[in-house]
Amino acid sequence: MGISLGPNQYGKSEVRLVTVRREGAVHHLRDLTVSTALRGDLTGTHLTGDNSAVLATDTQKNTVYAFAKQQDIGEIEDFALRLGRRFVHTQEKITTARITIAEHGWDRIPVDGVPHDHAFSRTGGETRTTAVTVRENRAWIVSGVDGLVVLKSTGSEFHGFPQDEYTTLAETDDRILATAVTARWRYQGEDGIDWAGSHHEIRRTMLETFATKHSLSLQQTLYSMGEAVLRARPDVAEVRLSLPNKHHFLVDLSPFGLENSGEVYYAADRPYGLIEGSAVRDEAEEPGPAWTGAVL
Ligand SMILES: O=c1[nH]c(=O)c2[nH]c(=O)[nH]c2[nH]1
To answer: What are its E.C. numbers (predicted)?
Structure first.
């Protein structure tokens, strides 16, 4: 019975690449998920473990990051072409490369109607929520947003934390701060509230505060956002926020003789810090059953 190797390919999937191009105070953000798949004469590695034709998937990933630094990414089609040609034209046994790229869109956060220099919100994916609890003749309303993804490419520091024998995190006075806001706010009162207007203003207040508040920790940003909502909306008694710290790590490009001074980042998806907390009005009505059974 003859057995032979069928179709095969290999590569690095879902390389998360975020770049920040700085034009004075104005930052330009790109956010891509890049996958590579190479085909060619790869019988050696499959049949005998001879890896002489196998450009490591780790090398493929590094190529993505190095290319992002060396040249403006441009259109994703151009970036994919540059990568594909590199692999096919430098690797004798590789005949075909398929590069797939998904670009994630970001809008500048408007602050007083003006697009912010370095604070962005991700397009799409956001939902508006409400949970209404009715008991006898009363009602409690908790509304919110899920999946409001925001990022600021500067204006965030983190330092002064305890150093023990397991601490390796470097202190920083300039980092990317990114999170997906899950927010819930509890109204005081049940009727006569402009729900749409309230949602709009709370969302705008959270976004503007995220953009403009210089951050010394995500915890500080969380409280500032909640506090700003309570100041803006007398009909809200309490705001709860759950903020994952979506870490962006500077890619070490020094092995390739390239300096990375805050341009090319790896967007990690897990593990992530999860910062949760609430801001409560001193004279707030009792929550009653408003939060009972709620996730936040
Ligand atoms: O804003 C932050 N808060 C933390 O508690 C924390 N912990 C950490 O490792 N990085 C950060 N960043």
So the answer is: 1.7.3.3
